[in-house]
Write a structure and sequence with these properties.
- Strand 7 and strand 8 form a beta hairpin.
- The chain contains 5 helices and 10 strands; from the N terminus they run E-E-E-H-E-H-H-E-H-E-E-E-E-E-H.
- The protein is globular.
- The strands form 3 sheets. A 6-stranded mixed β-sheet has the order 4-1-5-9-6-10, sandwiched between helices. Strands 2-3 form a two-stranded antiparallel ribbon.
């Protein structure tokens, strides 16, 4: 029988927006929306859940929202220099020791990108099941700017050129590019076995979200999400 683990990672040491993972949005802590999504999908597919945090405050909010609170992320995995995937791997290994079994898939739902649906998560997992050679998958959104056409960077000589090399006369003829929106990641268990695992692996797939989805990076992002919730334009 297929074994699935859903991880919810919420580090406590955010410098850009202190306490961002439990910042109130639409009358609830931000973490609550991802907790709801994780619990619903876990119930549907019989998956296990784990909250990965180094913060007592986040752990308390997670427990109140129905997430397990037994795992404590080690300090060495809770600083600015460690990649999130390494923290995910540690949580997976903890759960495998606890359960005495190995997972087939790990689904990570990001707290600061909550505009996802149950159908989105289901489709991501289905794509991975249908592509057994794929190692990872992550959700993306269509982007407005294309590095082959209307994004530039400065060269060593001081002049500017397109970020990506190419000779395209129109945006429509450029290769399609996407923004990683950070909402959903799916890892085949073997993808976490290398020394430095990454979401953008050598055999990565994407799931394109056609609906609105964005990371909450700035204070105004929280205000915008609260507006969408309060006006009923999104249903989390």
């Amino acid at each position: 029988m297929e074994k699935i683990l859903i991880t919810v990672c919420a580090r406590g040491g955010s410098k850009g927006i202190p306490g961002k993972n439990i910042k109130p949005v639409g009358g609830r802590p931000l973490l609550a929306y991802t907790a709801d999504a994780a619990k619903r999908f876990a119930e549907k597919c019989g998956a296990d859940l784990i909250l990965s945090t180094d913060s007592d405050a986040i752990r308390a909010v997670g427990k109140a929202e129905g997430l397990p609170d037994d795992y404590i992320r080690p300090d060495w995995l809770a600083n600015d220099t460690v990649g999130k995937v390494e923290a995910i791997r540690d949580a997976v290994e903890y759960m495998e020791r606890k359960r005495g079994e190995r997972y087939d898939f790990v689904i990570d739902l990001d707290v600061t990108s909550p505009l996802r649906t149950q159908e989105d998560i289901d489709r991501c997992l289905t794509i991975m099941r249908d592509n057994p050679d794929a190692l990872t998958l992550f959700s993306v959104s269509p982007c407005r700017r294309n590095p082959y056409f209307n994004m530039v960077e400065q060269k060593e000589n001081g002049y500017f050129r397109e970020v990506a090399n190419g000779c395209f006369d129109s945006r429509q003829t450029c290769p399609k590019v996407y923004d990683i929106n950070g909402s959903i990641y799916v890892y085949r268990r073997s993808a976490l076995e290398c020394e430095h695992p990454r979401a953008v692996s050598e055999r990565a797939l994407v799931y394109v979200m056609e609906h609105l989805c964005f990371d909450l990076d700035e204070p105004e992002d929280y205000d915008y999400l609260a507006y969408l919730i309060d006006t009923g334009k999104v249903n989390l």
